User: Which sequence fits this backbone?
């Protein structure tokens, strides 16, 4: 019997390995043969914890189906309220306390269980910020934060999570090949954020020693209580209502367990809404390290004459940004945008080329509010360093009292806007041009987001043109290969 069990076990492992090989591309096998296998493969679909809300004063929750607390007590369908008190939480049902504890884990008793939350903030800090009612499957975890408020966490399988992500980030009516590509990169990105696969990268100093330079970047937050958040600072996860379509399920099922790898390592697959025609390097937005598969690339079939990539001068960047060169992510028309973008993203009509005007008074107030600095009136705003797509990486603000350099791209976008500028790919004009201290600054910009990795609108338009998901992935992540790892 022991011998027979051993044979079965070895056969099972051999079949798994053969299945693994059949799902790998030949170039990947050649690359791994040269460099050695370095990717640790998960055996089964991982479970994720997603932070839905933080610092909530209370929680109104409607439960559908049977749930149970960790101690086995049943929580039937109905409306509930969770309220923090001095040492813990109280679960209220129809105004009557049901349980008190330091935290609650509500576990569904079958696959049909779901819960609905009101006033969930989406787009926090961005120009499309709003509140929604959202429904979720999986487990609901609620705990009291150190400030006496609530942290709300959803625990769910990775594949179910992805069905919501790809139809929250973009529209589930987009072409199926685009949804497949997005499923692969979103799966790759979230796995790359988990402790087991995450690579350690240096944290930025707030102020560089011995200089008037402020350098910050805003990567996935180092969440202690959950794996990833549910908003744009991680990737959008707006509940199961966004995942309840055949298109989203089919795209995730078709790519089940598939990720991007480069040289045997899991790709940190980044994406943004519109690159403005040229994608950007990883190091322009985050740590000073390079990911070879995240580089400067024209988002179109033939680079317009007169340009060379990467853009190497202020004049070249200005020519690119002030023009409207053709690219995949150039506005494709209202009909296509209505298929590929969620409703609130369609409100942003000027994403490809945009203009923002900041008065002197507004700028001074923003610098105090966002940077904690009093520069006095600002003489000039100057690009000190740009990435290969024309995005500003370091920006100089010359004031009456002080001059400061800020970076990287999201800190620049944050500092010069009440919410965030669309991107840091912009040129600066003074109004009036001849004044030593202008009344206002005009920013003329390109693109929406950091521009690194996949350009969502560009990739969606590629799929509309007939590109399949493997070609789309190869276009934006040069040298990376799709692998099915579980």
Assistant:
């Amino acid at each position: 019997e022991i011998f027979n069990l051993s044979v079965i076990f070895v056969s099972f492992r051999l079949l798994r390995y053969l299945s693994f090989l059949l799902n790998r591309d030949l170039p990947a096998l050649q690359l791994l043969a040269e460099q050695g296998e370095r990717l640790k493969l998960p055996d089964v679909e991982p479970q994720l914890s997603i932070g839905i809300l933080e610092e909530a004063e209370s929680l109104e929750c409607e439960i559908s189906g049977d749930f149970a607390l960790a101690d086995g007590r049943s929580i039937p369908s109905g409306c509930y309220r969770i309220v923090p008190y001095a040492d813990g939480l109280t679960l209220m049902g129809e105004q009557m306390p049901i349980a008190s504890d330091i935290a609650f884990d509500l576990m569904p008793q079958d696959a049909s269980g779901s819960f609905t939350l009101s006033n969930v903030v989406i787009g926090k800090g961005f120009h499309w910020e709003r509140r929604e009612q959202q429904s979720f499957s999986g487990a609901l975890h609620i705990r009291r934060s150190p400030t006496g408020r609530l942290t709300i966490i959803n625990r769910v399988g990775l594949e179910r999570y992805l069905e919501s992500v790809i139809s929250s980030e973009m529209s589930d009516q987009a072409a199926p090949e685009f949804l497949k590509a997005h499923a692969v990169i979103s799966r790759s990105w979230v796995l790359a954020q988990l402790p087991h696969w995450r690579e350690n990268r240096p944290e930025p100093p707030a102020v560089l020693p011995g200089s008037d330079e402020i350098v910050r970047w805003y990567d996935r937050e180092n969440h202690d209580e959950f794996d990833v958040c549910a908003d744009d600072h991680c990737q959008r996860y707006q509940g199961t209502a966004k995942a309840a379509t055949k298109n989203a399920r089919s795209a995730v099922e078709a790519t089940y367990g598939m990720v991007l790898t480069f040289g045997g390592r899991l790709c940190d697959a980044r994406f943004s809404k519109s690159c403005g025609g040229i994608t950007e390097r990883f190091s322009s937005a985050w740590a000073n390290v390079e990911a070879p598969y995240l580089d400067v690339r024209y988002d179109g079939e033939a680079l317009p004459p007169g340009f060379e990539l990467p853009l190497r001068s202020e004049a070249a960047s200005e020519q690119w940004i002030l023009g409207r060169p053709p690219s995949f992510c150039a506005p494709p028309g209202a009909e296509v945008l209505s298929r590929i973008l969620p409703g609130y993203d369609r409100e942003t009509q000027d994403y490809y080329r945009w203009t923002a005007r900041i008065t002197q008074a507004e700028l001074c107030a923003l610098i105090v509010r966002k940077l904690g600095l009093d520069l006095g009136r600002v003489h000039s705003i100057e690009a000190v360093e740009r990435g290969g797509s024309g995005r500003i990486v370091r920006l100089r603000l010359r004031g009456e009292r002080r001059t400061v350099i800020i970076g990287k791209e999201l800190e620049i976008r944050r500092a010069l806007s009440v919410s965030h500028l669309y991107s840091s790919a912009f040129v600066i004009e003074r109004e009036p041009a001849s004044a030593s201290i202008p009344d206002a600054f005009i920013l003329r910009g390109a693109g929406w987001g950091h521009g690194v990795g996949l350009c969502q609108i560009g990739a969606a338009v590629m799929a509309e043109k007939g590109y399949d998901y493997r070609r789309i992935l190869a276009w934006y992540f040069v040298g990376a290969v799709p692998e099915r790892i579980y």
Notes: Residues 5-37 have pLDDT under 50 and may be disordered.
